[in-house]
Amino acid sequence: MAACNGSVEDAPSGAAPVAHSAQNLAQARPIGDPLAEYQWHLKNTGQSAFSMGAGLPGMDLNVDTAFGAGWTGKDVKVLVLDDGLEIAHEDLAANVAPDMLYNFDPAAPDAHDPTPVQENGHGTSVAGIIGAIADNQVGGRGVAPGVRLGGARFIGYTGSRNSWARDTFDAFGGAPFSSRADVLNGSFGRVTIYPLELVPGQSVESLAAEGLEQLRKGKGAVFVKSAGNSYASVAGSASYCAHAVAAGVTCSNANSDPLGTVPQAVIVGAINARGVRSSYSSAGSNLLVSAFGGEYGGVSGPTIVTSDLMGCVRGYAKRAVNNRPANDFDKPDSATGKAFNPTCNYTSLFNGTSSAAPMVSAVVALMLEANANLTWRDIRYILMKTARIVDADRKPGEVTLPSGEKYAPQPAWTRNAAGLWFDNFYGFGLVDSARAVALAKTYTNHLTGRMTSTGDALRYAAAQDEPGVVVPVGSASGVDTSLVYSSNNIGRIEAVQLTLSLRDASMRDLAVELISPAGTRSVLSNAYNAFWNESRDVSALTLASNAFNEESAKGVWKVRLIDTNSRKGMLPTRLASAQLRVYGR
Description:
The active site is at residues 82, 122, 354. By secondary structure, the chain is an alpha/beta fold. It is 18% helix and 23% strand. The chain has helices spanning 22-28, 64-68, 122-131, 164-174, 176-179, 204-211, 242-247, 315-323, 335-340, 353-370, 376-386, 433-442; strands at 2-3, 77-82, 96-103, 148-153, 183-186, 188-189, 222-226, 265-271, 287-292, 304-307, 346-350, 399-400, 406-407, 414-415, 421-422, 452-453, 458-461, 469-470, 479-485, 493-505, 510-515, 521-525, 536-545, 555-563, 574-584.
């Protein structure tokens, strides 16, 4: 699994100089947390945060009210599942919980010390966003500076102490160190050009996520996960994505990672300092909310100031020496670096949905401090209800199929039948900590236990000797398969999963859409994606959507498959089976 921060890229030659000199900036630093004023995600005043581009004032997490009221996430336990955590870091050590540490790397000398080696500073940067100590006269501050931080080296190494399945269960509450967590942050994901399988209720990812519901004495731990950074490139290559860029859609959909399709996950997209989707942030119908990831520094605009592995020969600082970063703050030999980051313990270039997810994890910690009785389902509901719409004027793209028909492959903001606005770019919008904490504090309508599920009621399966549902090639209307749910037991939807098996599927050309009984359309997997485009069978392709939340499950659902026909001479895709699982109350 890969970490979900965007790559640090060099600033283009000829870029304008940083607006403030190192001397002037140094004179302006506050005593409590010297780098806090550059953490625009906490309070955006339009500062450049050592980059060459300014942010939009007010485009931040709206934490002033929570901080003013004294909320810090005090004693809420947040576990960072990542490439490790430097437990002795000067801005983290006092918040580290010794009983929430583990190292899955079989080469690690101490299984209970997740401190990484060399360049593996990702998890330490994530932890700084969540819980860097406030008012200690070093570094910046976390969104929830009162939390107890746990850490596990769960990615970024080779080999395994046990099996992958065992490690996954241990990380997700099945071991003593993880069972204590209130919140788990997963700033990682899987990117592939082939569809990955997930069988709900059977696959490891599904079972591990279900186990989280038993933590916190049955109230459930909250799993926050990054959406991914493959909107315009996959595995560092833009070659897979030229068709997606031309169509104005995400290249790798956030739904392509099986762990991102479980209903227990809070999937988070990234927004930049100007209030629009970060250029790399993967879109998908499984997003719940968004937070800040920034861009790439330099002229592209601010990134996130946070902790790095200590010292100039480790972490992002070591990488910076070789790769020339976009911001002078991260150059140990620059005037700005010497003035603000002389020991290289911090970075101004952390970005990606890896940055956005820990911001949401920290906001959840603030909510749990305000109301410790919240269940994992309550948290999802409150985040959804209190998010604020950004980029409200965004318009959906449109393509012309070879047949001449017009088709909108990825909708923009859409209001569902319950009155909620949703966009695959942003989920329900930007997380708003003040509103989330305010609602959490007064919230009493607790959603306890497991979500009610439609189970096997909504299912289509072709007989073995039948061709299945043939998807017409090049038709903008595609083909619908209707699934009828006649029960009244789910009056308010909380999540939806659709599992498909396909024959002769040309996945790059295929769009998977779902239309609710109320008529809300959600694109679960867009065409023009990064998948291969040759006829192959696909089993247990599971996709999720939050676009229908709070609608009723009763009525006729339509699974719509559309083949945009960019290939030639291949067989049509056929639907062999479809199972829709609607969860709610």
